[in-house]
Amino acid sequence: MRITAYSAPMMALLALTGCAGQNVTHSGFLPEKTYGDMTPQKGHVDDHIYVKPGLDASKYQTAVIDPVTWHPVANAPHLKPEVAARMTNAFTAEIKKNIGKIYTVVDASECGTCADAVHIRAAITNIRRSKWYYNAIPVVAGFAAGAAGGGLPPIPPPFPGGASEELIAVDGATGETLIAIATYNNGMPWNMMGQWMPYLHAKRAFRLASELLLEEFKKSGAPPLPEK
User: Fold this and answer.
1) 63, 64, 74, 207: which has the fewest Cβ within 10 Å?
2) pLDDT digits (tens, 9 = 90+) for 84-127
3) Residues forming beta bridges with residue 123, ordered by sequence position
4) pTM, whole model, 2 decimals?
5) Distance CA 196, CA 192 (A)
6) Alpha helices in the chain, H assignment, sequence order
7) Residue by residue, what is the 3-state secondary structure of 111-152?
């Protein structure tokens, strides 16, 4: 009976958290045709990905990366301008860091004809902050149940935070779409700091999205740059 008493409030709390998680978005940031060409792929069944058939990513030498934009879907939360700037800057930095492993990142003014360049644009389309005051409840309930002689199964944090993103890489000279990705990530229970820091899980989502873009370029033949 004690376990039931502690479990009922938890089930009620979890029932309220259905809208807290992230998903693949269709925000309009990408060309409409591109959304139709994107599909889940092996190893990334929850993501939507398009790769140009026969793409030879080794032909490119440089990358022009636009600053990430905040392009929210209809149900996204309102972000204060300073928060939106902090998040988009964090995502831009992750893309530059990862793509910089295979291409020399240059400014558009340094691109020339862009014949050997890829042009990358990305947007954060949804985001949720972690709410420590809710995430602490499962921990407290678990301790309370244990002290009462019962126990609760592991309960994921109800508001872990996370982010959804859309990315596109096009041929710098022709504008042809090379790779397009719609992806997302929610906070993981084992990432304890992310349960307390408001946007730590969102920043993890930015890193994973950037690594996914890098992975697709590498699978299409982009070699790593020589170590400096």
Assistant:
1) 74
2) 999 999 999 999 999 999 999 999 888 888 899 999 999 999 99
3) 69, 166
4) 0.79
5) 7
6) 2-15, 32-37, 81-99, 132-147, 192-196, 200-219
7) CCCCCCEEEEEEEEEEEECCCHHHHHHHHHHHHHHHHCCCCC
